[in-house]
Amino acid sequence: MEGVIDIRGLSLTFERDGQKTRVLDNLDLTVRRGEFLAIVGPSGVGKSTLLRVLIGLAKPSGGTVAVAPASSDGPALALVFQDARLLPWRRVIDNVGLGLEKLRLTRAERHRRALASLALVGLADLATRFPHQLSGGQRQRVALARALAVEPDVLLMDEPFSALDAITREALQDELTRIRQATGKTVLFVTHDIDEATYLADRIIVLSGSPGRITGLHSVELQHPRHRAHADLRAAGLAVRGALEGELVSDGAAI
Amino acid sequence: MEGVIDIRGLSLTFERDGQKTRVLDNLDLTVRRGEFLAIVGPSGVGKSTLLRVLIGLAKPSGGTVAVAPASSDGPALALVFQDARLLPWRRVIDNVGLGLEKLRLTRAERHRRALASLALVGLADLATRFPHQLSGGQRQRVALARALAVEPDVLLMDEPFSALDAITREALQDELTRIRQATGKTVLFVTHDIDEATYLADRIIVLSGSPGRITGLHSVELQHPRHRAHADLRAAGLAVRGALEGELVSDGAAI
Amino acid sequence: MRLLPPLGLLIFLAVWEAVPRLGLVNPAFLPPPSVLPAAFLREFTSGEWLAAIWNSLGHYTLGLATGTLLGIALGIVTGMYRPMERLTSWVVRVLRPVPGLAWVPFAIIWFGVAPSAAVFIIAIGVFWIVYFAAHGAISSVDRDLIEVADAFGFRSGPERLIKVLLPAATPGLLVGVRTAIGQAWMAVVAAEIFGVAGLGQRMMQASSLLATDIVVVYMLTMAGLYGLLDTVFVALQGRLLQWKA
Amino acid sequence: MRLLPPLGLLIFLAVWEAVPRLGLVNPAFLPPPSVLPAAFLREFTSGEWLAAIWNSLGHYTLGLATGTLLGIALGIVTGMYRPMERLTSWVVRVLRPVPGLAWVPFAIIWFGVAPSAAVFIIAIGVFWIVYFAAHGAISSVDRDLIEVADAFGFRSGPERLIKVLLPAATPGLLVGVRTAIGQAWMAVVAAEIFGVAGLGQRMMQASSLLATDIVVVYMLTMAGLYGLLDTVFVALQGRLLQWKA
Amino acid sequence: QAPVTARIGVIPILAAAPVFIADREGWLKDSGLATRYTTFESGPNMIQALASGTIDVYVAGVAPLAVARTRGIDIKVVASTAVEEMTVVVTPKLARFFEPGVAPAEAFKRYRAATGSPARLATQPAGSVPNATLQHWLWEVTKTDRADAAIIAMGIDATQQAILVGAVEGGTVREPAVTIVTQRDPGIKVVALGGVMFPDQPGTVIAVTAAFLRDHSDKVQAIVNGAVRAVRLIGTDPARAAVHVEQALGKGIVDGATIGKALVSPSSKFTADPRRIIEATAALQRYQVKIGALDREAPLDGLFDTSFFLRATAS
Ligand SMILES: Nc1ncnc2c1ncn2[C@@H]1O[C@H](COP(=O)(O)OP(=O)(O)OP(=O)(O)O)[C@@H](O)[C@H]1O
Ligand SMILES: Nc1ncnc2c1ncn2[C@@H]1O[C@H](COP(=O)(O)OP(=O)(O)OP(=O)(O)O)[C@@H](O)[C@H]1O
Ligand SMILES: [Mg+2]
Ligand SMILES: [Mg+2]
């Protein structure tokens, strides 16, 4: 296979009350090992659905998806859900430790890694809380720590920072970039924030239309660490935006 | 009373395993009738908690909150929760109609208003779906429509646009501005996006520290409709950001 | 998929037929299914069968309805209001374990030997099951959802109940009701041991005369009636919970 | 708040005392609570009371444990695997309404006149309640949470069960178990009608002699034991569900 | 004159046969008496029904009545229907030891010697008539060693079932169960008839509430007359009697032949004479007090009213 993930001719249809809605249509995409690939697109276009297919939570109606086998102890893929989806009966630390229980680790090792992961998102203090005792942003950060903890080959992230304030968000963006550079992880990152996409990604694909198709693909060749106000990023952002707006206009959608 | 909402000496403490965490401390705030007041602040500072106190979902540990009685048929306040919190057993249209059932309306009138509200957020097509058949952004928009439908005097909005892509988001921002100008509604708007705050708000308060206090208050005197790239907004944004970063540094928090 | 339920039943019947035939159990106690049609025909032609069903169905329906409604109502009240729960908690503990048979004297004293006494016994037989299911379901409704109702001004008990508690508790409530639908048939037998005519009485008579085939005929009759009701119920449940699918 | 439970009980006892005293019910059938201590003392000093409790507790504990464990196990299996649910659905409908009394002959055949037969009857008495509770709770676990387990590689049945289904279904399961704790006492009485010594037999004996005061003494004994267990259970439940608070 | 309706509570056992026969022969109707039956499983439930005023006539065992009278329920026994109902049967395992010429006590002893455990005999709980008569037979009549036999108390149905499957080695049963179990398993043997266990042991009686007696003493007389005639009919034409009993009791559950056999079996002893059981009832109570099944004897004075029977037999 070419990349760490190969998607060929992927399409997906939901059925509801006997009526079919095609969400993804004949998608081709190769995710290269080690790259940071951002996916942007309007609400409801099928971004989350795509990630769900990759990790096996949804079955494609057509096409194939190939994922390279895991290269280390950890899993090949880990997903940060769009909603935090913490297990309400587990304390924060045990929520973060969930994925680790699949690996062959001692209890102490598990605890250590969960705590380290929690510290990365700045929540080590809240380790013993239950999810309902957290704020919205804190929950999202715990979900992020849960996926980071298992150290997968590919991190699938579904708008992981959308509930965070600018400062926390920028800190985590930088943290994510650092982790990636240190470990060479592949990241598939869904976001609705174009600045975020250009700041983080090597490549950005624009998903739009109904059913969702890839309508734009932009590379950002700038070295990390990047400067947020760099002109290249600004330019890439405008291009992505153009692709999005163009699609929307041509589609004649309400918004 | 001075404003449509008067907060005096408000403080709130959570108790957990016998241990107390003070979240809000001695807060004073007057919300003026008709203004658009944005609240920004780091994750976990107490923004959601403040809105919850206002609408009566949380009891303050100290201080008083006074809300002017409703001026029309609708309620004095309506809240858009940070998580969508749709009722899973109700179809989209009935979720939007929830608040309307409290008003004295005919069935047809209720349906009409719910549908109109749904159209505002661009989801009239999905009226008969159940919440679990929606994307994350779509759910959040339904929650927004639900609050808009009851036409309250004051709209409390807890990061209502954080799950939306740039285009949808901007469209809804403009829609909200339009509604406000047409109806003179007061809006209390929690966001973590400084650009959003400066673009929309008349005044911006910065909540930070632990326990959360008001550490900054900025006015944006620009007329609506505004231009997103206007220098005044940029300046206000920098000021807010400064307040936020300053607080964070002086606080010595992890992020 | 569609053929699995009858397949399961077939396997069950085959095992049942084999057990007495292979002499594992004395056929006097477990008549093989193949001898039952004859016994059924005898009961049917004598008219006993229809009369028994008719009588029992009356007690069953009324008893189930009464017990279920009371159970739901009280379960809701104690599930919603903590002081009510506390006020009743010890009394519930005293009354809960009183077996159906122990209520028989009171049934007779209060209602006489009348169908209403049987209804009373059946109602008690299902009451607690539904009560605990309702109480549990209501008191474990997600607080986040209750807050939604609150935020939109539905703050009185009844409003909260109708807008959130009841729909959110429906899955749990239905589990209780489904259990009750079965339990009520069990209770029918206990309820008819004193002079109220019906299936249960007929079974007991047959049992005391060691006519096991007739006992089994009535057991299967109950199974059939229950199966019918349960099927209808499951379909209804599917409709009520379609938002879960 | 703390005083409400005893207050409720007091009101209950007062009403109970009044009913026979005011002649609303013949004291022969409902002895007022005030005459019970004397009856209790008689039973206690004769040693009957302790022996009966001791025997019944044995049947109760074993029967409850067996029925509950089986009910949970099977409820989980059919709740998790749709084909299993379908395969058993009709068989369940046949067996479900078979009343405890109808199982007595089988209990005698399989276990003889031995405590294990009583255990069997009690186990059946609680089995269905727990089964349906477990089935319902497992099959209505939020799919979003199951997906979390899936996404982290817990895809086999047992893994999924332990990581998500069981903890998420705990509130519903506990409702079933709590109902069973009560139901099992009801079943004790039915289970001891064939030669197995214990509370139930002693009650039957007293009842056939119209010694209602003794019947009520044993009823209250059951209530006491049940109350104790239920209190422990509720405390346990509170701990298991502290994440809900 | 409109017929008076008697609400009759019965336990569906063979001993109630005289009432069914009298009714189905039309004798009661001829005296202006309509009947409505309510079937019960046990005597105590019928006492509760008496107390709640839902039945007028009680056709079941005499034992609960004595107690009921002490609890303020005014009721009078006007006739008997059968005596010496209970019989002892043993299962094949134990029947082997009841060879001709071997005394029961000896048979029990040999059984224990052979198996190492006492023979288990099923009967109803302490305080019931079957229990007392069984004990009387074991300890007083046959002088069985207490180590050789164990009494296991259970319900009537359970007793029959336990005997049939051999879960116990024997027990007390009454007709028609005696006929049915011996038909099902010929290895099951009757080892003692009721008269041997406890002479004249009281069985099923006809009793009426004081209120009904006061208002309709002529109808009570009709019932007693009917019972007397029915007992005679069973003696003279059992086949004809069996048809009625089968209709009332079995309603298709047991065939007429079995009922016919049960009616004339040595375990059935029909009599309408209440005088025959007065002394036996008292004696039984004395014995129950002796074995600790009863606290004290319930006074029997006023329970029996023999005048109806005397009038019935005089005419
Ligand atoms: N039940 C609770 N028990 C203890 N602490 C709680 C509880 N609920 C919330 N908190 C804490 O209160 C603080 C304020 O929470 P709040 O939800 O108001 O934050 P927020 O400003 O809205 O944050 P975000 O931007 O992440 O949504 C958080 O630090 C949170 O951990
Ligand atoms: N179960 C379902 N039945 C029918 N339609 C569904 C179902 N689940 C999702 N959809 C639809 O599929 C489309 C894609 O959903 P998806 O969650 O992938 O969107 P998204 O791109 O992640 O959007 P957002 O940015 O709002 O999260 C949406 O239009 C949604 O309404
Ligand atoms: Mg999404
Ligand atoms: Mg918040």
Automatic annotation (TrEMBL), chains A, B:
Q: Could you state a single Gene Ontology molecular function term?
A: ATP hydrolysis activity
Lineage, top-rank taxon, reads Bacteria
Ranges for domain ABC transporter:
7-234
Keywords, A to Z, come to: ATP-binding, Nucleotide-binding, Transport
The similarity annotation says: Belongs to the ABC transporter superfamily.
Question: What protein name is recorded for this chain?
Answer: ABC transporter ATP-binding protein
UniProtKB/TrEMBL annotation, chains C, D:
Stretches assigned to the ABC transmembrane type-1 domain = 53-237
Alphabetically sorted, this entry's keywords are: Cell membrane, Membrane, Transmembrane, Transmembrane helix, Transport
Q: Which GO terms describe its cellular component?
A: plasma membrane
Q: Where are the transmembrane segments?
A: 60-81, 101-134, 180-197, 209-229
Which Pfam families does the record match to this protein? BPD_transp_1 (PF00528)
Q: Where in the cell is it found?
A: Cell membrane
Q: CDD domains under this entry? A: TM_PBP2
**Mind listing the GO biological process terms from this record?**
transmembrane transport
Look up and give the membrane topology term.
Answer: Multi-pass membrane protein
Q: So what family is this one in? A: Belongs to the binding-protein-dependent transport system permease family.
This protein's name = ABC transporter permease
Which source organism does the UniProt entry give? Answer: Phreatobacter aquaticus
